[in-house]
Design brief:
The complex is a heterodimer of chains A (706) and B (536). Chain A is built from 16 helices and 35 strands. With 706 residues, chain A is α+β, with helices and mostly antiparallel strands. In chain A, the strands form nine sheets. In chain A, strands 13, 14, 15, 20, 23, 24, 31, 34 and 35 form a nine-stranded mixed sheet that branches. The chains are: A alpha+beta (706), B alpha+beta (536). Chains A and B meet through helix 3 and helix 12 of A and helix 1, helix 2, helix 5, helix 6 and helix 7 of B.
Chain lengths: 706, 536
């Protein structure tokens, strides 16, 4: 990506807005790789929730002043934001109507008809994004093959539009049954709205998310319509603000699938911006994987509230076609709203530095899902927080220390951490502060370990072959322990871990994934229709990508397949070249192999079904220069001037404190040690060694594995 | 690490292992009820066959049926005849989970030469032969093949004779055998993970950990029970049944040792397959009590032990061989509301009004209208649908949501993709909620027709048409269900009947009962119901 110019990545999160300037680094004579020949200047400012562009602009101004940057030299600004996510969580969207096929008014309210929590009699199901009184119906019906069963009732549609105008709706979502096969009626409805009320924005499900399953599709189009006015005006304000600063470069957005899209596309399909920040983190990890030539990466991102775990194969993050946002109950599956768009697949659990620890009535230590966040914060922050958190445990165990804690505005108070741990954990279990802290730390590590294991199982992977990459303020504290628990051999803590997502934005390709449901089976494979569909999807995706780049493009095609009778599909890659009967056969062979990998044994004698088709088009990524991986050598001598808990032996031990900045490529550090830097702390147990690689990443293994 | 912390970590790990086991099953299963309804279970047991951890799945029906199953395996096979590499199987309704369609597979775990525990899993398979899934068999023998407790594999060698017999006795044999391999495979995953855990913590068996789990759980469950006033509490409930109404009766006795439900006074067994082996009634009783008393308690031997049941043999909740039991869930699902109702006064603030209870599953065979000139292959269609649940003491009931079952519905688009069916309507049934300070959950209306030269033969199995869900504490009853054709012709709610090719079936699902005097309903809540059109 680096073309010699200046670029900016801006990640607006719940607490902080991270701004990173990427510029060529001519000073570093040792810069042997593209990554090292680039310099990242970063700042963190508080997120300005009422007008998030102000935080970004303030951050850019601060960096430009501090580093004497002329903003007229900027080539691109790349932006990711939680604004769309937050609008959905906090229900701060436009006055929105949902128009559906007659007979299906309540799809987004009756949901799956299940309870996401089997044992909670007082369960509260999520309120539909659009209330029943704002949902309208039109007589029309398309069948599963896309044929008309009941004609579109034009007169009734006009009446509904009149009601929408009268009702003062700003935005309209349209979702008709089987529109992923035949979008004619959704388009006709949009045309009627446009003719009568041109200022009303319309989102149609066939464009936002042409995937089968009405609950997910209707909900996705509803979410898009709901956040659309808000996001469009925000993006325009940000563009104008950048121009006012003298930055006349184009603005691009990072989408949930981990690629860049234009402002126009983002303004039309803002639902694609949901979860864009974590997507940046996965790209950051993927780039590291490519530099280090690692084919299997477990990306581990831990912040103040949650931990996110993703798998990256062959330097490409795994994607999914649907996910859940705005979970209302303890991150529990099923308690949020489904969004069917291409997304980097990850698992998110309530395990962050601020996660609150407690003891339940079984005498079990529980962590989260509530977080003390930045206000009031962990007890040790001395900002008024009373509850024991994961951070408090890390303070008690000597992993975090007032002298080396990164956030300079906060002075850690170990006494407060100790009191909170005894109060919340120790009293109930008869533990002292140290044992309480060990229990809290072990339990949060175990929770993350279990989440990682389940995620691997869901993807048919065995973690033994993986390398872990840790970033985000909290991850390097826990990563070496997780590596031990998961039986993983190697861990990398890259440079810039604290602002990993924003750096990831700058490493992302232009990309767009077009997905559509289309059902056929090996009994009678509809090759001609499949070819037409693949071409259509490729055209659609290419059009979006061409809005941002003239670079060479890479096309990837994927089909979701299953045995007839099953309900869960496995993604299978379509071989290159024209799609014909031979290719269809190859697809089935590939499915069988993949199935065996997931579940151990293929099933004989059954037809295989293709359910959903996807084409991803992306600008060809430059291959990053390989990093020189340093051998583990004799450890540098460091004073063991702190006492910290060592998980390998279960004892408190004299522990070295090493400044990361003074380490050079090739240096080795022996545990027990903490390696400190301004944004995070890396913890090594007594059986760990860390070596500094050519790109200054810390590479950590157990001694016996070096 | 203190041993308490280590034990807590391992307990969590065991739960994660069985969740992993269950997830694998859901992903590979061919049976709609496994996939959409979570009709499966997975658990880990100590060497004595005591349940240590169980995955939370969608069906309370497996709560303690599977817990008891492993004891039967140990008993029937004998520990001295168990070897590494063995896999055991059964679908015995009385030793497994209540009907032939559930196959339970158990795998012993050896640490070296020593038997230290078991993994077991259960899954509802697509077919077991016989008449096919439905209430029409008059004896167990008509309901399908019965596999006594036996070895599916001996020391790693598959029992080919059993596979052969099965293949020749069930429809869709590839799927059924595939599912059984899936059960064995998920147990194997669990076994390997458990051995890794023992290695990590340097343990040689599960004894100490089992004691820790059972002791902690026992204290917690007894603590919860301590708040319940001692005494015997009674309730009755009448439901539609199959060919005649069924009277359910319970006396729940709360003592220092636990809670016991006695179903004496309940109707006798039906000639149809809606009869319930008592293990299954116990499961729904236990589920209701845990939901009310200790919802955060993970299931294991100690959490289930205090909940016992009895009933005279031959009542519908204690069917005996060879009574037909194929669709035992239809009556079984009412046991939870029946038993909770008995405790309404003893557990103030915890017992909801009655809900729709039994699911309204649409189970139909699509057949060619004109088989001679326009032949069509037969197609089976299955949809799960739920009415409203009962109002809670401080919350409205849930609209179109299953309770006590954990069933989810299927997407209309996905259903139409695989069968010759058009779902013309599936939406909230206005005015169906029982009134109350908290109103019941609303039912739903479903309108279904055949298409593409097919018509439907359909097996109606709908309850709460004659006996609506009753309100509690002055709350109104939910609307009863109704079955008709789209031209208004009433339809029977029970039994096999054809739907004429040019007609649609209309199902109006029952609403849940209300809780408390409707006059006490919050004015804003009432206005909201009106604005949303919930009141009809």
């Amino acid at each position: 990506m680096a073309s010699g110019g200046l670029r900016i990545g801006a990640d607006v999160g719940g607490t902080f807005t991270d701004v990173v300037v990427e510029r060529p680094n001519a000073q570093d004579a040792n810069a042997g790789t593209e990554y090292l020949s680039t310099e990242y200047l970063s700042t963190k400012v508080l997120t300005t929730h009422e007008a998030p562009e102000r935080g970004i602009l303030a951050g850019i101004e601060a960096l430009s002043t501090e580093h004497d940057i002329d903003l007229a030299d900027l080539e691109q600004v790349i932006h990711g934001t939680t604004l769309a996510t937050n609008a959905l969580i906090e229900r701060r969207g436009a006055r929105t109507a949902l128009v559906t096929t007659q007979g299906f008014r309540d799809v987004i309210e009756t949901r799956t008809e299940g309870r996401f929590e089997q044992y909670d009699i007082d369960i509260v199901l999520p309120t539909p994004l659009i209330a029943r009184c704002d949902r309208f119906v039109v007589p029309e019906r398309i069948n599963a093959r896309g044929e008309e069963l009941l004609p579109f009732d034009e007169a009734a549609a006009r009446q509904v539009v009149d009601q929408l105008v009268e009702g003062g709706y700003e935005s309209v979502a349209v979702g008709f049954l089987h529109s992923y096969r035949n979008a004619t009626n959704e388009r006709r409805f949009r045309d009627i709205v446009a003719a009568v009320a041109s200022d009303m924005t319309v989102s149609i499900s066939a464009e936002v998310s042409p995937q089968m399953r009405e609950f997910e599709r209707f909900n996705t189009v509803a979410a898009n319509a709901y956040v659309q006015p808000l996001m469009a005006s925000y993006l325009r304000r940000l563009e104008a603000g950048l121009r006012d600063l003298g930055a006349n470069c184009p603005l691009y957005l990072i989408h949930s699938g981990g690629g860049l899209i234009s402002v126009d596309t983002a303004a039309a399909f803002p639902v694609r911006l949901v979860e864009s920040g974590p997507a940046g983190g996965a790209i950051f990890a993927a780039h590291l994987a490519a530099r280090h030539g690692l084919d299997h990466i477990l990306s581990y991102d831990m912040g103040g509230t949650t931990a996110k775990i993703a798998l990256i194969e062959d330097h490409v993050p795994q994607t999914a076609k649907t996910f859940e946002v705005a979970r209302t109950t303890r991150f529990k599956k099923g308690s949020g709203m489904p969004i069917s768009i291409p997304v980097i697949e990850m698992i998110e659990i309530g395990a962050g530095g601020g996660s609150i620890a407690s003891v339940d009535n079984l005498g079990q230590i529980r962590i989260g899902p509530h977080s003390a966040g930045s206000e009031p914060g962990p007890a040790a922050y001395a900002l008024g927080g009373q509850r024991a958190t994961v951070t408090d445990a890390n303070v008690k165990l000597g992993r975090l220390h007032p002298d080396t804690f990164g956030a300079t505005s906060i002075t850690l108070d170990p006494g407060l951490a100790e009191e909170a741990l005894v109060r919340d954990i120790g009293v109930a279990l008869g533990f002292d502060a140290r044992t309480s802290a060990i229990g809290v730390a072990e339990m949060v590590d175990e929770n993350m370990t279990n989440a990682a294991r389940v995620h691997a199982v869901e993807n048919g992977k065995d973690l033994a072959d993986y390398t872990m990459v840790a970033f985000g303020g909290g991850a390097p504290l826990h990563a070496a322990r997780l590596m031990d628990k998961l039986g993983i051999r190697e861990l990398l803590v890259p440079v810039g871990a604290g602002v990993g997502s924003a750096i990831g934005f700058l490493l992302a390709p232009f990309s767009y994934e077009a997905v559509r449901s289309f059902y056929t089976s090996t009994d009678d494979f509809a090759v001609d229709e499949a070819v037409a569909l693949l071409n259509e999807l490729a055209d659609e995706a290419t059009t979006f990508v061409r809005q941002g780049t003239d670079a060479d493009l890479v096309v990837e095609r994927q089909v979701s397949m299953r045995y007839r009778g099953q309900g869960w599909e496995i993604p299978v890659t379509v071989p290159g070249g024209p799609f014909d009967l031979v290719a269809a056969d190859a697809l089935v062979t590939e499915f069988t192999k993949t199935y065996e990998r997931y579940f151990g044994r293929a099933i004989e004698g059954l037809a295989v079904e293709a359910v959903s088709w996807a084409v991803r088009v992306a600008s060809a990524a430059g291959v990053p220069g390989a990093v020189e991986r340093a051998p583990f050598g004799d450890p540098v001598i460091a004073d063991a001037d702190r006492t910290a808990h060592d998980t390998a032996t279960g004892r408190d031990m004299p522990t070295a404190v090493v400044e990361r900045d003074i380490l050079n490529p090739g240096d080795t550090v022996a545990g027990p040690a903490v390696i400190v830097e301004s944004q995070t702390t890396t913890v090594l147990s007594s059986h760990h060694l860390a070596v500094v690689d050519g790109d200054r990443s810390l590479r950590i293994r157990r001694q016996e594995n070096t | 690490m203190s041993s308490t912390v280590a034990h807590q970590i391992m307990w969590n790990r065991l739960i994660a292992i069985v969740e992993e086991q269950a997830l694998t099953l859901v992903r590979t299963s061919f049976s709609t009820s496994v996939r959409e309804a979570g009709d499966l279970s997975a658990g880990v047991f100590d060497a004595h066959g005591r349940l240590m951890a169980q995955a939370v799945t969608g069906t309370p029906g497996h709560v303690n049926t599977m817990a008891a199953a492993v004891g039967h395996f140990i008993n029937d096979i004998g520990p001295d005849r168990m070897y590494p590499g063995d896999v055991y199987i059964t679908n015995d309704p009385w030793k497994g989970t209540g009907h032939l369609h559930d196959i339970t597979v158990t795998t012993p775990v050896f640490a070296g030469a020593r038997l230290i525990g078991f993994f077991a899993s259960t899954s509802h398979v697509v077919d077991v032969g016989g008449r096919g899934y439905g209430p029409d068999g008059r004896e167990l023998y008509e309901e399908g093949i019965r596999i006594p407790i036996m070895k599916w594999a001996t020391q790693g060698r598959l029992n080919d004779d059993l596979v052969n017999i099965l293949r020749n006795n069930v429809r869709e044999s590839d799927q059924v055998v595939g599912d059984i391999h899936g059960l064995a495979a998920c147990n194997e995953t669990g076994r390997r993970r458990l051995l890794e855990m023992l290695d990590e913590f340097d343990l040689h068996d599960l004894d100490e950990l089992a004691d820790f789990i059972f002791e902690r759980t026992h204290q917690a469950v007894m603590g919860a029970l301590a708040d319940v006033p001692r005494g015997t509490y009674r309730n009755t409930m009448d439901v539609d049944g199959y060919d005649e109404p069924v009277h359910l009766e319970v006396a729940v006795t709360v003592s220092d040792h636990g809670m016991h439900a006695d179903f004496e006074g309940t109707s006798g067994v039906s000639p149809y397959g809606i009869n319930v082996p008592i293990v299954y009634a116990q499961a729904y009783f236990t589920y209701g009590m845990i939901v009310a008393l200790a919802p955060e308690l993970p299931n294991n031997h100690a959490s289930l032990a205090p909940f016992t049941v009895s009933a005279p043999p031959g009542v519908i909740l204690n069917a005996v061989e060879p009574d037909p039991v194929s669709v035992r869930h239809v009556i079984g699902h009412f046991v939870t509301d029946l038993c909770l109702g008995a405790l309404a006064e003893a557990l103030p603030g915890k017992v909801p009004a009655e809900g729709a209870g039994a699911l309204w599953n649409f189970q139909a065979s699509a057949r060619a209208v004109d088989p001679i000139n326009e032949p069509r292959p037969p197609v089976e269609v299955l949809m799960f649908n739920s009415g409203g649940s009962g109002a809670r003491p401080s919350l409205d009931g849930l609209t179109a949501t299953a309770f006590p079952s954990g069933v989810r519905t299927m997407s209309a688009e996905a259903t139409e993709q695989v069968g010759p069916i058009v779902i013309w309507r599936k939406e909230i049934r206005e005015g169906s909620a029982g009134a109350g300070a908290q109103r019941g959950g609303l039912g739903q209306v479903i309108e279904i027709g055949a298409t593409d030269g097919y018509y439907f033969e359909f097996s109606a199995m709908f309850d709460r048409v004659e006996h609506p869900a009753r309100g509690r504490h002055g709350g109104g009853d939910g609307a009863p269900g109704r079955v008709s054709l789209d031209d208004g012709t009433p339809f029977r709610s029970k039994g096999k009947q054809p739907i004429p090719p040019d007609r649609r079936l209309v199902l109006e699902l029952p609403g849940g009962g209300g809780f408390g005097d409707p006059a006490d309903r919050d004015a804003a809540a009432h206005a909201h119901d009106e604005q949303m059109g919930y009141l009809g």
